[in-house]
Design a protein that fits this description.
This protein has 269 residues and is mainly α. Helices cover 66% and strands 3% of the residues. The protein is built from 11 helices and 2 strands, in the order ααααααααββααα. Strand 1 (164-167) and strand 2 form a beta hairpin. Helix 3 (42-50) runs parallel beside helix 5.
Length: 269
């Protein structure tokens, strides 16, 4: 039995080049667990955000899990690189609060714009033109683009916590600093900072990744005690499969769709 196990490890080592790259199976397993704990929050946040724009929360959860899982498997088996792929928080926020909430696109039209922006990005990568374009962008501008995405994500948090009031997509006033949603933000942020600080001091990547999930659990317990809940509770059932393919492949007759397409393409690019 041990001989078969050793042979399997040798095959994996040869296929992925673990030791050839100066790593080990123990290191890779630890890194995989810590990376999963760092990014598993998207399974909670993605349905929560998109459901506010009319998406079925169960369908979003199914799509998030399947898309992330298949992408990670392809990245590992095909590219043989330990990179994790999952939906971007900035893209779902833009679709929910700008494309649908402000510009008036339907769920199907917005998904069509997402689909074609991804197709164009893949084509430019395959050429390969994408790498040349990215390398031609000054480093300072690349940093500013990353910063702007971070600010946009932070703005979504301020909106959901009701710390800032928005009207037609523009901040119009200060909200309530003592609302249950605001306190939930304080708790989640505080727990994350404390746990990540301790994890860094102890040099523990697993606890550093788990900080996000623990913060979500703490915030969820608080919201449950205060009666704060989603508009539509998440239901895991076969009905979530009904949303597969629920997109418009010809969305470009809708107003503002080219603007949405361009923004999504730039974020993805």
């Amino acid at each position: 039995m041990s001989g078969l196990f050793s042979a399997a490890l040798l095959r994996l080592d040869h296929f992925f080049g673990v030791r050839a790259r100066g790593s080990s199976f123990q290191t890779e397993l630890l890194a995989g667990v810590s990376t999963y704990l760092s990014l598993a929050y998207i399974l909670v946040v993605n349905p929560a955000i998109l459901s506010k724009a009319g998406f079925d929360a169960g369908g979003v959860l199914f799509a998030t899990a399947v898309a992330s899982g298949l992408s990670c498997v392809l990245m590992g088996v095909w590219a043989r690189l330990p990179f994790v792929l999952a939906p971007g928080l900035e893209m779902n926020g833009f679709v929910a609060f700008s494309a649908i909430g402000i510009m008036g696109l339907s769920v199907e039209q917005s998904l069509g714009a997402v689909f074609w922006s991804g197709v164009l990005c893949i084509l430019l990568t395959w050429v390969p033109m994408r790498e040349r374009i990215i390398n031609s962008i000054p480093r300072g501008l690349q940093s500013n683009l990353a910063l702007s995405v971070g600010i946009f994500v932070a703005t979504i948090g301020l909106y959901l916590s009701k710390l800032v009031v928005f009207e037609k997509g523009v901040p119009s006033g200060i909200g309530y600093f003592s609302s249950p949603e605001a306190i939930s933000l304080y708790l989640g942020l505080g727990v994350t900072l404390i746990l990540r600080t301790k994890a860094l001091s102890a040099n523990s990547s697993v606890w550093s990744g788990a900080a996000f999930l623990i913060a979500i659990i703490v915030s969820t317990i608080w919201c449950s005690s205060q009666g704060v809940s989603a508009d539509k509770p998440l239901e895991l059932s076969w009905s979530m499969l009904e949303n597969v393919g629920n997109l418009s492949l010809f969305p470009f007759d809708a107003p503002n769709v080219f603007t949405v397409f361009l923004v999504l393409f730039l974020i993805d690019f």
